[in-house]
Amino acid sequence: MSNHVLVDKSGGVLTLTLNRPEKKNAITRAMYQTLGDAIDASNHDAELRCVLLRGEGEMFCAGNDMSDFAQMSATAGNASEVTWQGNPLLSALARARLPIVAAVQGRAVGVGVTMLLHCDLVFLSDDVLLTTPFVNLALVPEAASSLTLPGRIGHVRAFSMFVLGEAVNAQSAVAWGLANAAVSRAELQARARAAADSLAAKPPAAVAITKALMRDAAELQRRIDREGQHFVEQLGSPEAKEAFAAFAEKRRPNFV
User: Fold this and answer.
1) What are φ and ψ of residue 101, in 5° steps?
2) Contact present, 4 and 30 (Cβ < 8 Å)
3) How many domains in the chain?
């Protein structure tokens, strides 16, 4: 399972690569743990100056592994009795001290988008589509995105992404402030690595303090926990059971 996340340290940069291209880099529970542990460890590694997130293959990240979701929904009991146990990646992103750079190609879905809201520099391939179709699965936003996304792009745009599941292309993502630049696929990895190397050359304390001043880690964690409780309750709801059954059966869901 560790092969589904590749970890590399070089030149002061910690590179974390989603390495499950045959499943479109959908993230499993084990992958969340590996990613979260690596980001947490980077906070205490004096050799590191920056984190670079990337994905192997044609697609950056298809979001959470659907089989995990479906299993959790199927086995959940009374939704009101379900308790949020936390997500190691989301909490690690909220408390990250080092700047984070992302290189995103193809598609990013769900958490593949919301994790980008915790990144400090984001570079997209010019064919990117970003989607956050949580409500389509009878779920709710996560990763504090109900706070960070409308804060970044405004309520109406965020609502259309969350509730209508509308896709955002690379050009709009840059114009709205979700990314720094859109480049060709051939340029993407080099552009993101150059940005990471540039950050690694800056005075580390000044960079870390600047990042900390620009965000409220405690508030992010509070929102993650609030969203998380709603999220797991929805996983156990009749709505979610119908949504996942419809997804598996390739039909339109019937929410009555």
Assistant:
1) -110, 140
2) yes
3) 1
